[in-house]
Amino acid sequence: MKYRIMIKMLSVLLTRRKVTAAELAERFEISIRSVYRYVEEMNVAGVPIDVVRGRYGGICLCDTFRLPNGYFTRGEYAAAINALTAMNSQLGDGDTLSALEKLRQRQKTDKREMSVTGNIIIDGGAWCDMDKFSEKMRVCEQAVNECLRLEIDYVSREGEHTKRVIDPHVLIFKQNVWYVYAYCHSRADFRTFKIGRIKSARFTGRNFKKRQFSKKDIPLNFEYTSEQLTDVTLQINKDAAPEIEEWLGVDCIEPRGEGLIAQVSLPDDDMLVDKILGFGGKVKVISPEPLREKVASAAKAIYSAYER
Fold first, then answer.
1. Are 240 and 282 in contact (CB under 8 A)?
2. Smallest Cα–Cα separation from 74: which of 38, 43, 42, 113?
């Protein structure tokens, strides 16, 4: 009985996202204390539900949470909707209509799994959580477009979890990483958040007015000065050419002997070393010498980690 009620409570939250404990208690004929106990059990099971106190509070399901794709296939959605539509036309039953609306809403959400806008399609998620990443992108995009305030659970590089209330102003895609640039009410200033580090997010139900900012205010290097760049010469195997062309562009690569040479100006940092190592032995640093030494040292460290 308890688990049946918990499943029904989750269904209500998936549809409405926020509801009061009193409403749930009355609907399922249980005490408010039982409602909070069931919410706690769902939290332990991994369902991101927050209890928000105050006048505009309630029991809130994070807007980034959704049931897994395997719950229904697209064909099953269509079949269920057609069947319920036929039933509703005959019965006019309230529960049938409610179920029909839930499935239609779910089907509408499903169609946006990899879409950021109507003109851009992306697959920017991690290998292990493609669906979760897409939902976070969807919520952040909607927040930016409609000026909707979010509450997020953010995980820092050090593993610290913090609750932040943010006003998302713009989405940023840089070096294969998605960010949201937002005004953070906890810090009373703008901050840049990696979307992959957002554990969960929910709409607070409040709008915000966008503040003025410029591209220079965003703490990500969109343009490097000459002092930040290093002239690099790379020797490239021909079978690695397609990947190098996608990374550096075709204009800076030219044939040289049995292989290819690329002469470019790049930011000399750890990310450059990691990028070069990612091509294995197919890319070799000819110059500068300090970069050669960094790559060689990193390669030796990798070898040592696997040496028996």
1. yes
2. 113
CA dist 297 and 262 (Å) reads 22
Beta carbons of 305 and 255 less than 8 angstroms apart: no
- HSE-CB for 169 with a 13 A CA cutoff: 17
Hey, what's the torsion of the CAs at 8, 9, 11, 15, to 10 degrees? 140
pLDDT single digits (tens) 52-109: 877 767 888 888 777 665 555 566 666 667 776 766 666 666 666 776 676 666 555 5
Query: What are the structure tokens assigned to 160, written together?
Result: 């610290």
> What helix, strand, coil percent values describe the chain, rounded to 5?
45, 30, 25
Tell me the torsion sign for CA atoms 170, 171, 172, 178.
positive
Residue type for position 144 = V
* Total length of the chain: 308
DSSP string, 24-38: HHHHHT--HHHHHHH
Q: Facing residues of 266 across strands?
A: 230
CA distances from 185 to 150, 151, 194 (A): 10, 10, 17
Residue 233 contacts residue 291 (beta carbons within 8 Å): no
Residues of the chain where predicted confidence (pLDDT) is lower than 70:
1, 56, 67-80, 84, 86-96, 99-100, 102-131, 175-176, 221-227
Contact 154, 193 (CB under 8 A): yes
